[in-house]
Fold:
Amino acid sequence: MVTKHTSEPFTFCDAMTQGQDRLAREVLESITARWSLSVLRVLAEAHGPLRFSRVLERVEGISQKALTHTLRTLERDGLLTRTLYPQVPPRVEYELTTLGRDLSVPVASLWRWIAGRLEEFAAAQALQRQS
Amino acid sequence: MVTKHTSEPFTFCDAMTQGQDRLAREVLESITARWSLSVLRVLAEAHGPLRFSRVLERVEGISQKALTHTLRTLERDGLLTRTLYPQVPPRVEYELTTLGRDLSVPVASLWRWIAGRLEEFAAAQALQRQS
DNA sequence: CCGAATCCAATTGGATACTG
DNA sequence: CAGTATCCAATTGGATTCGG
Structure:
């Protein structure tokens, strides 16, 4: 699959089959879901595996249920691995995959694009509140 | 505000105040919300203003309520403009701003990053379903 | 025509209790 | 310890109706 580049923006979807488009959207959603970036960040900063409880502590405001769901989704998409050590009490460790680590590059780009235009966004919102 | 670049990924949040971080997240959310990309795309391809009904027709599967909400959010963030022509019956036109048009660049980057790794994502998901 | 308002179904999310 | 299960509150989303 090769993405055609034309003068038209947003054409990047066109070269995909319906299944590919669906998968790509799924991944995009899991990346941009409520808690994903925070969890990815915590794991990136850990430079190694982290137990469930440690992640729970470091992601401010997340509930245990939401964390479980977020981790499962990111695992499903191959961004992190889940390793269960069958001990009593059990130990479960989460760690970024190479894919998960590489992700920070394009995500950081988008983030910086937004960060570089914060004044424009703030101005737009301020204008909006007037009318 | 200057974003510090270190070897650490995800540090791009650090140089922001809490208010800036909140705003950036708000924008990121509005961009990645359910229908935003489709709406932005339709407007980008229009090369000009588009009436509410025309957008509604071209975004497959969206409800009128969801479209109204999406348009309002994107307008609030300065990505498009809403122009009301006080006629009977009323006419309302939506058009991308420069900010909205520029957005397609970083979004396309992230999209291509994902698109270029679809096989890895598919493989990860396949593996997942086994266990 | 545009969209606000209303109603209702379905999904989400937190809190708590429980288990291997 | 790391969840799953359950209950419940709050939010979301579609369908429909109504109004300027």
Summary: Strands of chain B lie at 50-51, 80-85, 91-96. Residues 63-66, 69, 88-90 of chain B lie near DNA strand D (CB under 10 Å from a C1').
